[in-house]
Predict the structure.
Amino acid sequence: MTRLGRIAFIVVASILLSGWTDALSQNRSALKTNIIDDATLSPSLGVEFTLSPKWTLELGGSLSAWDTWGGGSLRHAILQPEVRYWVCDRFSRHFFALHAIGGICDVGGVNFPSVNLTDGMNSSSMKDYRYKGWAAGAGLGWGYDFVLGTHWNLETEIAIGYAFLNYDRRTLDGDVLEKEVKRHYVGPTKIALNLVYVF
């Protein structure tokens, strides 16, 4: 893992742990993982705690610090804090969300189906090039929390938003082809299927 990756991991872990400490002092809190991220070998962790009867705050993120089996790279660290308004009760049924997103990445050498991500960058080019940089943005979302039992929930969420990307385009060997490329992205910023443990 690069030095920047280690710093990002420490920052994400510190924020999540401080949020977890605060969450334990509230009357309702939750620990969660996004099954979609986990299935793509990007382990995720989030904590959510009560702000008021209708509002909660989630601190979550994911991290992938290794290469793929074929020698490609999907390394990234993402932090995504989110405030939620619950239509009914906290941790039950419909909610609306506003999130921020920030992250760093070093991806490439991976064969994805062709999807146009931004002007000048599409997912199919990731098999021939590496992209190393950062992104920041925000989005609005809607979700639904299915209560499975006393402590377990299954939560879905989708969000649309904006992100600013700043990256270097490199060869697979790491030689820089384009430096400090700036792009604007509008589209899905969060797709989640969370397994949730509610305290």
